[in-house]
Amino acid sequence: MLTDSPWAQDFTLQESGIQTRSLGESEDGRQFYIKYQMQFSSALPIRQAQVRQAQITQNYDNLGPENRQQFDQNAHSFLSSKFPDAIIVFVTYETNSQNASRDLDRYWQSQTTDLLKNQVFLRNSRGNRADLAQFSVHPNERSFQFIFPRQINGEPLLGPEDISLMLHFTAPKAGGLGGSDGYLEFKPEKMVFDGNLAY
Asked: Coil, strand or helix: which one is 150?
């Protein structure tokens, strides 16, 4: 769910461009890759999967009563959150190249919403575009999030007539790779949860 689902995709950069789950070669002879993982974290199925992942990581079944109660309260608050105005895309990145790692960390830690607003956007199949509204990077972690408006001209970005949702993303150059535009295509017909579009 968190890596390959209607709400989550990844792409990897290599010498020939951007290809899903593909590998290049690193400076020490190993296969060199830079991978971005993107999730619609405002979608309830993704947040449910994140809670389940946390249960496994924290060994939920063996928690004491007080710790389990605290976990359940936090999970309930997290899952009951609503996003009437925002679409949140959570992004992580990884690479097996030390040079690329330094380049990527330096790049993303220096970015702002203003610098990225013309490079990152969502577009539905009718051509309506949701520009980046907010960018925030997580210090000391290789992750950040893009926030987009949920409505365009007073209407939801996604409607029943949309057959695709494109995420445009410019990957920075790092370790000799990147510097190119990428598109991830999501299928709204598969992003239905409990009878409603979830994104």
From this structure: coil
The rounded distance, in Å, linking the Cα atoms of 156 and 86 is 10
* pLDDT digit string, tens, across residues 72-113: 999 999 999 999 999 999 999 999 888 899 999 999 999 999
Tell me the CATH number at 166.
2.60.40
Structure tokens at 73: 């309260």
Q: Which helix (H) or strand (E) holds 107?
A: helix 98-109
Placement of tokens 């309506």 in the chain: 128
CA dihedral 144, 186, 9, 76 (to 10 degrees): 60
Task: Express each pLDDT in 135-193 by its tens digit.
Answer: 999 988 899 999 999 999 999 999 989 999 999 989 998 988 888 788 899 999 999 99
> What DSSP designation does 190 have?
G
> What is the domain range of residue 98?
8-42+83-193
